[in-house]
Write a structure and sequence with these properties.
The complex is a heterodimer of chains A (about 525) and B (about 600). With about 525 residues, chain A is an all-alpha fold. Chain A has a domain at about 305-535. Chain A is built from 21 helices and 2 strands. With about 600 residues, chain B is mainly alpha-helical. Chain B has one domain (about 10-380, about 460-540, about 555-595). Chain B contains 20 helices and 5 strands. Chain B has helices at about 15-35, 35-70, 80-105, 125-130, 140-150, 160-175, 185-215, 220-230, 235-255, 260-270, 270-295, 300-325, 330-350, 355-375, 455-460, 460-475, 480-495, 500-525, 570-585, 590-595, and strands spanning about 70-75, 80, 380-385, 445, 560. The interface of A and B includes residues 90 and 166 of A. Chain B: It holds the Pfam family Proton_antipo_M. Chain B: GO terms for molecular function: NADH dehydrogenase (quinone) (non-electrogenic) activity; NADH dehydrogenase (ubiquinone) activity; quinone binding.
């Protein structure tokens, strides 16, 4: 904002930045699909389609610029209120509006999405590594990534419950094809499992959406979130509606015991897909809990909090323990995510502004660190053709740089001080402590487990004697540096100087707490039977 | 009392019906007087013009009805009000699209109908007719008669007209069902079943009409409604009569337990007719049901509710569950249409103003996807063994995609211009590059077994993608018409106090998504033709295999081809896809238009 004149004219909040962010990737995807050219018999693109990768990357970078512009147009001093508002009637007969707008949390997640997309495009650059020309499959894949970007941005910016639901469901379709069409040998099974879990959760939410609308004020804007917040409803109805929403979000997040689709999907999907799936899409679940469940159903949220906190604790430990036992690195990272999502949910349902701010920040950091881990595992798979830990060993002598970035990203996943995840995990635990003392203590113990799954994996893959068949493994290349470099840079910057990010999430957290209406922290944690469960 | 007073009839209000029925009569004359060579173009022109004219006529009547709310015509036998016009418009548009699919002879040069309907299957007479290259054109007037009946059905204002309209729409459909070119025994069996069960349902309807007449002394809806309110002390007569009439209508919409004809008729009928029947009949029958339920029987609400709820729940549950184990794509779509009847019923029993709008919108959304889906099914064919090349059987693996046909035999006739054979190779996505010159077998009937659809998404991405769109609409995925419809119907149901129905509907939708998704998996993520992993056939009994019916027509399965359309079917499928997307993304204007006139007059 060096030039005030430019800032006021170009970066004005009146420009529909969010719509631009939503529409641009869709246009780019259409361009990719419409590129003239043909296909050689062995599947390579000819004609203009040879430039599909460059087109996709260019579009993704423009999307990043649009995201930065939105950030500049956003008034960070009023991050607690929704800004960049756009409201148009969409289906007024059903009370549905095309209403976009972000508060600090929404904006942070939009930025996370648009930052990850070019990295995913770049990571997929040589998906089938046998020439300078991209395959036609890659073109379809990149187009699907761009379509998904549209839905990701829109869902974090939706200010209309119906619109949110529509995007929540519609984004399953590109992901479904991204897993099922481009994944590993059991991709069909993984894709269908993913879709059916999400669809079932979504349809339960649909029942909740309908019920909520009928409880609400109705009218042509009856689905606008701000019109629905504060709706007066009976306790029983509120609790049912809360459950309908929460189940959908728990599946998406994913929380124990409805997480079983995630390891399969992450194992079978290409690394880039897993990055977006776990790094961004799963945040829709926790984002929904934060921005819909809590403000819309405050009483029911408080009512359900004890059980949810217990489930979150189970998720934290269960995910971490299973991660330790995994042989497949994609599955391992997926299970660490289950653990991390437990932290995020714990922070949200502690109803303290510190912990909620921590959870919001955690969502962004988790996207960076887990996304980075998936991409790095993808690099390893590209070298070895396997994601199994036992197939690796002693790589740090052969590929020191790759080992280094893997270690940094892994340390970020275990919340080492100096890296951004530490700040958020610390905030969650500190914020939770006065409210759920025991829960905070138990959660803190899980950090030890995180150290085990990260360091033990590093030890088995990178240390020890160099295996003969790995002796000529190439180290990280220029393209791969550009994939992982930005992520590590952001993690370090936000680790040492988290203030700008915290400014985005702090005020929304206070707003949420006031909406939930928690006056004083509950005195003591009620005794509850932690449900024991087993994974498949 | 001897003086006859000529009724004053507002003929203009009947234009859509008169146009279609008049064209049907002209079509019969064309069969008699126009030389065979010219019949098809003439019939096609007349049919399309009549249906387009009906659409225009509906549009022309719209303004008047929107102002006045509607009028009685023919002394109250026909009621032209908002819902009537919406339904007539929907039926005319869907029939127009369905006729395009019916008219398409594809690159094989053959339509979907038996050359001589009267010929015994497998007889020399039939073979002679086939060899002579005879093609049906009576189909067009038959479709027009059925459409005419459908246009009257939702507009009826008395019970006798209801019955007559029912028969006018049903009889041509019974006939059309039996006219399939391939698998003729199956087709005739379906026709027979449909006819017998249909006749049974008609008898029940007629009996119910008699009882209602005995109760009220009138056949007019308005008079019966008055009598219902008046409490004449003959409740038994009224209840039994109403139940029987409802059963007759529920049979036509294919609601459980009156659905048993649906899968057989849908499977046996020529596929373009199945699309026509599935879409238009359902629209018409639901139109009649809504009128009866909202105008005549609202005061019986508490008496009928247990039955209607049971039927709606059973319809959703049975349709969904049974569809899960089907192996024939036409039967899957048939059972899915049963499930959809259940979804629409939840809107019907809501008995609210928004319920009418929701039902009308749902029918349009469902009809468009149905016509399109069956249109695509009609293009996916199986390829038989090569007879010309010394009994050698081409398999998918042996011959690559050859862009032209060399070993065409008498039955396939013309060249299949752009047919690309599905290849057995899993990871090879392109359909070109094999050595040309391999002979290929003749193109046979539709490849309806689900396993034959494996890998279609790789060889024909656009066609398969469009089919996916229709499936997603059936499944109710957001941004398709089906979602908007489902949402509107469930909202209306909850508003009308029928929230258990909405809950069952949501659960059924989740289960139904499974079999739609299964077809998508099959088309896009499975290798063609019987790879080791066949999620479809494994473990489920092959309900649809009619090997006993006429095994002769089914040569060894040697491959699946997509025949090129003559253009008609493509236009229809494209239009259906456009409607499906448009009603999903911007449903506002259509919902608005329907809601503005969704007022039934007694």
């Amino acid at each position: 904002m060096s030039s005030p004149a430019l800032a006021t004219t170009v970066l004005s909040p009146d420009v529909p930045w969010l719509t631009l962010l939503v529409v641009w990737p869709l246009v780019a995807a259409a361009v990719l699909w419409a590129l003239p050219g043909g296909t050689t018999p062995d599947g390579y693109s000819t004609g203009a389609r040879r430039w599909s990768r460059q087109v996709a990357l260019g579009a993704a970078l423009v999307e990043v610029l649009l995201g930065v512009a939105a950030l500049l147009a956003f008034d960070t001093l009023a991050a607690g209120t929704h800004q960049l508002l756009e409201t148009h009637a969409w289906i007024p007969q059903l009370g549905v509006s095309y209403a976009l707008g972000v508060d600090g949390v929404g904006l942070a997640l939009v930025l996370l999405s648009v930052v990850l997309v070019p990295l995913v495009v770049l990571a997929a650059w040589r998906e089938q590594d046998s020439g300078k020309v991209p395959t036609d499959r890659l073109r379809h894949y990149l187009a699907l990534v761009l379509v998904l970007t549209t839905f990701m941005v829109a869902v974090f910016a939706a200010r209309d419950v119906f619109l949110f639901y529509v995007l929540f469901e519609a984004m399953l379709i590109p992901v479904y094809f991204m897993i099922g069409g481009f994944g590993g040998p059991r991709r069909r099974y993984a894709a269908v499992k993913f879709l059916l879990f999400s669809l079932a959760g979504g349809l339960i939410m649909l029942a909740g959406v309908i019920g909520l609308y009928l409880q609400g004020p109705g009218g042509e804007q009856g689905f606008l979130t701000e019109n629905l917040i504060g709706t007066d409803m009976s306790t029983g109805v509120e609790r049912w509606l809360f459950l309908a929403f929460f189940v959908a979000f728990a599946v998406k997040a994913p929380m124990f015991p409805v997480h079983t689709w995630l390891p399969d999907a992450a194992e079978q999907a290409p690394a880039g897909t897993s990055t977006l799936l776990v790094g961004v899409l799963d945040k829709v679940g926790t984002f929904g809990m934060l921005t819909l469940c809590l403000p819309l159903f405050p009483e029911a949220s408080r009512w359900a909090a004890p059980v949810i906190v217990v489930l979150a604790l189970i998720s934290i430990f269960y995910g971490a323990l299973l991660a330790i036992g995994q042989q497949d690195m994609f599955r391992l990272v997926a299970y660490t995510s289950v653990s991390h999502f437990g932290f995020i949910v714990l922070g949200i349902f502690a109803f303290a502004s510190t912990s909620i701010a921590g959870s919001s920040f955690y969502m962004v950091n988790h996207g960076l660190s887990t996304g980075g881990l998936f991409l790095l595992v993808g690099f390893l798979v590209a070298r070895r053709g396997s994601a199994r830990i036992e197939d690796f060993g002693g790589l740090q002598k052969v590929t020191p740089v790759l080992a280094g970035v893997f270690l940094v990203t892994g340390l970020s996943a275990l919340s080492l001080p100096g890296l951004s995840t530490f700040v958020s995990e610390f905030l969650v635990i500190v914020g939770t402590f006065p409210v759920w003392e025991a829960a905070a203590v138990i959660a803190a113990v899980a950090v030890v487990l995180a150290a085990i799954y990260v360091l033990w994996t590093y030890q088995r893959v990178f240390t020890g004697p160099v295996r003969d068949d790995l002796a000529t493994t190439p180290d990280i290349g220029a393209r791969e540096r550009w994939v992982i470099g930005p992520l590590i840079a952001i993690m370090l910057v936000l680790g040492f100087y988290p203030a700008p990010a915290l400014r985005l999430v702090d005020e929304p957290a206070r707003t949420t707490v006031s909406q939930v209406g928690v006056e004083a922290p509950p005195a003591d944690m009620p005794m509850l039977d932690p449900e024991e469960g087993s994974d498949r | 009392m001897t003086e006859f007073i000529a009724p004053d009839i507002a003929w203009a209000q009947l234009t859509p019906i008169l146009l279609v029925l008049g064209a049907a009569v002209v079509g019969v004359l064309v069969e008699a007087f126009v030389p065979r060579r010219a019949r098809r173009p003439v019939q096609l022109t007349i049919t399309l013009a009549a249906l387009a004219g009906a659409v225009v006529a509906v549009a022309a009547l719209w303004g008047g009805v929107a102002d006045t709310g509607g009028t009685d015509v023919l002394l109250g036998s026909v009621v032209v009000d908002g819902p009537t016009l919406v339904l007539q418009g929907t039926i005319a548009v869907l029939a127009l699209l369905a006729v395009l699919v019916i008219a398409d002879r594809t690159a094989t040069g053959e339509d979907a109908f038996a050359p001589q309907g009267a010929a015994t299957p497998g007889s020399g007479y039939e073979e002679a007719a086939r060899a002579a290259g005879l093609q049906q054109t009576e189909v067009y007037p038959l479709v027009l008669f059925a459409t005419g009946g459908m246009l009257i059905f939702p507009a009826t204002g008395d019970l006798l007209t209801l019955f007559v309209a029912l028969e006018v729409l049903s009889l041509p459909l019974y006939l059309l069902t039996g006219l399939a070119r391939r698998r003729r025994l199956l087709s005739q069996e379906a026709s027979m079943k449909y006819f017998l069960l249909g006749a049974f349902a008609s008898a029940l309807l007629l009996f119910g009409i008699a009882l209602l007449y005995g109760f009220s002394g009138s056949l007019r809806y308005a008079d019966i409604a008055t009598a219902v309110r008046a409490d004449t002390g003959m409740d038994a007569l009224l209840l039994v009569g109403a139940l029987l009439v409802l059963v007759g209508l529920l049979f036509k919409v294919g609601a459980v337990p009156f659905h048993s004809w649906t899968p057989d008729a849908y499977q046996g009928a020529p596929t373009p007719i199945t699309g026509f029947m599935a879409a238009c009949t359902k629209v018409a029958a639901f139109g009649a049901l809504v009128r009866l339920f909202y105008v005549v029987l609202p005061d019986l609400r508490w008496d009928l509710e247990p039955m209607m709820w049971t039927v709606a729940i059973a319809t959703m549950a049975v349709g969904t569950v049974v569809a899960l184990v089907q192996t024939d794509v036409k039967r899957v779509l048939a059972y899915s249409s049963v499930a959809h009847a259940g979804f629409v019923l939840t809107g019907v029993v809501a008995l609210t103003q928004s319920g009418i709008t929701a039902v009308l919108f749902y029918l349009l959304a469902y009809g468009a996807a149905t016509v399109g889906a069956f249109g695509i099914v009609s293009l996916v064919r199986e390829r038989g063994a090569v007879r010309a090349a010394g009994g050698r059987v081409t398999s998918g693996a042996a011959s690559g995609g050859v862009p032209h046909v060399e070993g065409a035999t008498a039955t396939s006739g013309a060249a299949v211009a752009t047919a690309v054979e599905v290849r057995a190779d899993a990871d090879d996505t392109d359909g070109e590059g094999a050595e040309p010159g391999e002979p290929e077998g003749p193109v046979l009937g539709e490849a309806t077994h689900l396993s034959q659809w494996a890998g279609l998404g790789r060889t024909n991405p656009v066609l398969a993608g469009t089919f996916v769109l229709f499936l997603l609409s059936f499944a109710g995925i957001p941004l398709t018409a089906g979602f908007t419809g489902k949402f509107a119907v469930f909202t209306a149901a909850v508003e009308g106090g029928a929230w258990p129905l909405a809950v069952v509907g949501v659960v059924a939708s989740a289960a139904a998504a499974f079999f739609y998704v299964r077809i998508i998996v099959l088309m896009f993520f499975t290798s063609p033709q019987g790879g080791p992993q066949q999620p479809v056939t494994a473990g489920s009994p092959d309900v649809a295999d009619e090997s006993g019916a006429d095994a002769g027509a089914r040569a060894p399965r040697a491959g699946t081809v997509v025949v090129a359309s003559q253009g008609f079917a493509l236009v229809a499928i494209g239009a259906c896809a456009l409607i499906t997307i448009a009603l999903g993304v911007v449903p506002g204007p259509v919902l608005d238009a329907i809601a503005s006139v969704a007022q039934l007059i007694p």
